[in-house]
Amino acid sequence: MVAFLDVTGMTRWVSETGLEHVLADMVARVRADFRRWTEFERAPRVASHSSIGVIELMPTSDGQSYGFKYVNGHPANPNRGLQTVTAFGVLADVATGYPVFFSEMTLLTGLRTAATSAMAAKALARRDAKVMTMIGTGSQSEFQALAFRSTLGIETLRVWDTDPAAMDKLAANLRPLGFDVTVCASAAEATEGADVITTCTADKSNATVLADAMVRPGVHINAIGGDCPGKTELDGAILDRARVFVEHEPQTRIEGEIQQRPADFPVTELWTVLTGAAAGRTSAEEITVFDSVGFAIEDFSALSLAYAATRGTRYVQDLEIVAEPADPKNLFSLLSPARVMA
Amino acid sequence: MVAFLDVTGMTRWVSETGLEHVLADMVARVRADFRRWTEFERAPRVASHSSIGVIELMPTSDGQSYGFKYVNGHPANPNRGLQTVTAFGVLADVATGYPVFFSEMTLLTGLRTAATSAMAAKALARRDAKVMTMIGTGSQSEFQALAFRSTLGIETLRVWDTDPAAMDKLAANLRPLGFDVTVCASAAEATEGADVITTCTADKSNATVLADAMVRPGVHINAIGGDCPGKTELDGAILDRARVFVEHEPQTRIEGEIQQRPADFPVTELWTVLTGAAAGRTSAEEITVFDSVGFAIEDFSALSLAYAATRGTRYVQDLEIVAEPADPKNLFSLLSPARVMA
């Protein structure tokens, strides 16, 4: 039997444990896995593109466990009441090849992306960062805000989205939790006084949601919406003024903001900062960019944490995914012999 | 909600519909999809190899539906009571990216592999073929035999396996269904008088389960066990005497029997035979080899058939895989606000 954490199980686990507690555990888990980066299989995800969206498979393995995530990205989905991004994932035992854990990952992706962003910002943002601008206030935004507060102590948010209702939603969700939220009239207004700028928009195009002039020295940019070929968010000139950090360079060359720059544009893989092999921020004036596209190891971390936390609890149910004939070579025995010739 | 066909649901559907009926439908479905081959995305599967096995993801899409299979191959599993191959798969809607069908595929893989083999043999074996040799009598073997009987009328089997219990199992399963089964003492004995030879062994090595001398003119070889880098079954000399047919040439170059031959060794993609663009068997003396490794389109066909047949029936259950917030941009609303700060 495979343990299944469905949407209800996931929401109960996260709500009853406390979202900020889960986010803190997630930051620690993702960081620990980034620090053992080279133990993992690392390959760009496998994407199936259509004119209106993408479906991706993101596998990796650390030699003991294998994990993969299925995730889609369909920017027009909200117009028909559907989510832009949905996901699910599986963990399996490398020794047997058997799946052991199956989980919803729409919520879990929100958590792992927020945890990864906050972990990167902890290493790259100024220690005295107080104000975060959020450009794009969709599904991911509240998770981002909570992860940044628990990791960096940021409580002041200046937000901008082309959809006013989405901004109001964020404000309604976060003000009761103690955030100081300013709903702005433009991206330029939102970026006034920013120490950290998070861009998280969904359009599958080369957009410029953040112009060069909006970025003052010392800012850390958490760029998470540019994550597909032909989908970017930043004015390319920002990249030229900044030090750029990435997850897995070969994937980010294909999918990240650095699509806008030549193949030899200098980048630093984030895991090398976390192990101390490479420098993070080197001055208070430096502009740092985490050109995040989402990598399979982050999903592996999230699945591993969720499995460890919910295994054997009432949050999960058993699914009969794997046939288990008494004689493993007698798969045929599972069929009723009398009916084979029906 | 996603429709889920678990192991019990699959066995009930197949048993109650009749295995041979399902196999006949599967042959037709796989054939129809092979005949529209160029409508599908075609890429080699994504494999994660360890010292004792492999885990693979096999995605494809026809532009309307997207499907993928998770499948492992662990030859030592039966020694610990586990199956060599287990699998599950998913169908999704390309327009929304949402998954719609989730299915066990351990049994379904047995059906789709048998259907593909029989479909290929129908195009490539001699019309008067009466005797099939089966080298390897593991989990797949009974499905192969039934598909060949329903498609080519073959009822006479000569079998060989290094595990005598596995041969006895096949005989016990198939004799009550009307097959004439001869359990042999060697591969050489099993191949005497063969018109079709099916090789389906599990060892992840370059083995020679079928020697050149065992293959007389006019034989069709259904080679399905050699399906990984470093995993082959045939004496390479057989390939030189034969015309070799493959599923997706780039994948078979990596995984198939033709690993043993140079990159320009001539092969014919099977779909071109089925559309009439290429010749199949051209004489009664020709040796034909279907160098089958298993391709994602076959799994797509199998999932599509199972989904169409079981959707809305008691064979499937609903799984809550996809979060469905009332406001698609308010994923956060699924969490209990009172608990976020716990």
TrEMBL record, chains A, B:
Pfam families: OCD_Mu_crystall. InterPro entries: NAD(P)-bd_dom_sf (IPR036291), ODC_Mu_crystall (IPR003462), ODC_N (IPR023401). SUPFAM superfamilies: NAD(P)-binding Rossmann-fold domains (SSF51735). Coiled coil: none annotated. NCBIfam families: PRK07589.1 (NF005762). PANTHER family: KETIMINE REDUCTASE MU-CRYSTALLIN. This is Ornithine cyclodeaminase. It comes from Paraoerskovia sediminicola.
